[in-house]
Amino acid sequence: MKTVxxxxxxxxxxxxxxxxxxxLSFIVPMALIIIFGNIFGGGGPxxxxxxxxxxxxxSPVAKLIESKLDTVKSLYVIKTFLSDDRKDTFKIDxxxxxxxxxxxxxxxxxxxxxxxxxxxxxxxxxxxxxxxxKNDIESALIQGTIQQTIMSHAPRxxxxxxxxxxxxxxxxxxxxxxxxxxxxxxxEFFNVPIDSxxxxxxxxxxASLYSTSLNTASSANVISNLVKFENExxxxxxxxxxxxxxxxxxxxxxxxxxxxxxxATSLFEEKQEGTLKRLLCMPVSRAHILWSKxxxxxxFGIFQLLVLFFFSWIIFNVEMFSNFLNLLIxxxxxxxxxxxxxxLITSFAKSMNQAAGISTLFILTMSAVGGSWFPTSLLxxxxxxxxxxxxxxxxxxxxxxxxxxQAPFSAIxxxxxxxxxxxxxxxLYALVRFNNNKTL
Amino acid sequence: MLKINYVDKHFEKxxxxxxxxxxxxxxxxxxxxxxxxxxKTTLMNLIVGYLTPDSGSISFxxxxxxxxxxxxxxxxxxxxxxISLFQEITAxxxxxxxGKLYELDNKDLSKKIDEVLELVRxxxxxxxxxxEFSGGMKRRLNxxxxxxxxxxxxxxxxPTVGVDPQSRNAxxxxxxxxxxxxxxxxxxxxxxxxxxRLCSRLAIIDNGxxxxxxxxxxxxxxxxxxxxxxIQKTAATQSKIESLNLIGTVNEYxxxxxxxxNDSFNQHSKIFKxxxxxxxxxQFIQIGRANLEDVFLNLTGRSLRD
Lengths: 440, 306
Known about the structure:
The complex is a heterodimer. By secondary structure, chain A is of the alpha/beta class. Chain A has 2 domains: 45-164 and 202-235, abc type-2 transporter like fold, CATH 3.40.1710; 242-437, no CATH class. In chain A, 65% of the residues lie in helices and 8% in strands. In chain A, the strands form 2 sheets. Chain A has a 5-stranded mixed beta sheet, with helices on both faces. Chain A starts with a helix and ends in a 5-residue tail after the last helix. By secondary structure, chain B is an alpha/beta fold. Chain B has helices spanning 40-47, 70-73, 91-101, 106-119, 135-145, 165-180, 192-198, 216-221, 235-238, 268-277, 292-300, and strands spanning 2-11, 14-24, 29-33, 55-60, 63-64, 76-79, 153-157, 184-189, 201-206, 209-214, 227-232, 248-252, 256-261, 285-289. Chain B has a 6-stranded mixed beta sheet with strand order 6-7-8-3-9-10, sandwiched between helices. Chain B has a 4-stranded antiparallel beta sheet with strand order 2-1-4-5, with helices on one face. Chain B has a 4-stranded antiparallel beta sheet with strand order 12-13-11-14, with no helix packed on it. In chain B, helix 3 packs across helix 4 (106-119) and helix 5 (135-145) packs parallel to helix 6. Chain B is elongated. The two termini of chain B are 33 Å apart. The A-B interface holds A 273-275, 277-285 and B 45, 48-50, 67-68, 70-71, 73-74, 76, 78, 80, 82-87, 98, 101-103, 145.
């Protein structure tokens, strides 16, 4: 038993001195728990999903729904936009909403309550819903929230709409007969005044609607006739495999980070096996080694991503050739930024083990926060802010623009600029450290 | 050919080399002898430009050696102490990579690869993966990689560490032949036998300082006693050893005692007589020429292997 105890102590001592193992065992899972905890509850205020709301109706019902949507915590309701010079604010109209969704820079959905949303002759509430299903979770979340708001705050409207539909389809006499008989039945069954039941069932004008106190429940089939959604998908209609097209970029950049960080940190292996020293004793400078590693890794990364996208095209119809030039640009700048990240780790770490531990921590965290695994809109606001300083965010967003939105270069120009800047700054820093023998 | 002028090198608070001043001429087989941690590898790293001296300078064929002077490195061959080869590829592929980095063109390179592989007797294994090689074969390939560009000088940093006697002898023969063909060789070791066997001139280095330099004869001449008296360590001799203090100084080693007699005992007959009188019979006594181990001991008071 003493031997077993001593062997356990041996393992504990080794673990204590193995910083990368500790990092991977505790810090990495803790970081991921924080991120997932914030998304799926229990970790402070949840993130809000942006939705454009355009209310062109003068109906009090529309005003009521608007006011209720304003208070939904999970929604960030956008109603205005800034002018190009960012001095003036304008109200978003339907056309502008369509434009904003197509650009992908504002929100993935817009709820329009048109002028004829609810008039005195309406037999249903009329909504227009424009959306860009760039991610399933966000779209489902927005639609679910809208339906919940309508069902929770406008149920009293439904008997009115039922009555109007009866008048329209079966005529006034038959409707009066139906209301009289049905009202009598309800009054007797629930032991309430039959007159008040009949009265509430005969309200057809919206003005007097909210002066009554009747509550009514309705089945889903009835409601679907009473709330008319004109859904229009603005983006990605031609995409053959929406699910994979939306997510392939996120997964690709995560694996790219792993492979290219591994390629960059292989300098430690070369140091360990002595070949780095041999190279540095030849007519080879540290800058030569750094740049060769950078260019090799970048070419490898470009090739890796092309193979991955080609594979996705062959097997799953993920369209890569219709916007190929922009895809190639995104692949190149993503590879450049990913290699730079690897170089940064290499310039800081003191050993291969340390580099592996640190890179795993950062890659998994960046993937979670930057949108590789799920939309960043699900993150709390403060995490969404952090996500914008990760190269994963700019890369995932760029691939989404190129593959899903089939966007032109202008749509990814900012992504390209940010990724190149990250790459340039990190490389300069790593080069200085390498040349000054601060590392390896 | 190679001039090292008053070179100092520190690593944080540790002084690795201090005031090193050496000049190595063309065609020499120059040895740097010293115990582990004496500063031999640091000096080699400075000569090849891998490290930069804190003060002083190193020049080769009149050209300053510096980490950014890649031209001078083309003229230097370096055999690192560690086996510095890409293990997962073949011997031929390794040499091709290194040859390309020395800017040899394809035609010359193939010929040169065959030549150096022939020299280190690995021609038949040239398409084998390096990690499958024995330690000795790897050492030989390590040497071959440094000869591809036919450098006028070859720096060998303990190239026989961990090598079996057969491979070690093969490496000695190769280096000897290279030197005979005009190549200047600088060789570091902590084995005095290697230094004595190979080197025409030597510097003894200890704690970052060169404490002596010259030919083997010059160094032995530094000793007052050119001969050493060794007494085999046995149960019989151990009990008597203290009584020998009357004859001279006694140093104890793993397997023997070394006796450095006082001036009054300047004849072998006197010494043997005294030893016998002190209970140590002749069969336990050996008289030999002083070697580099003795020189090092004489200079530092420590053994090379300490």
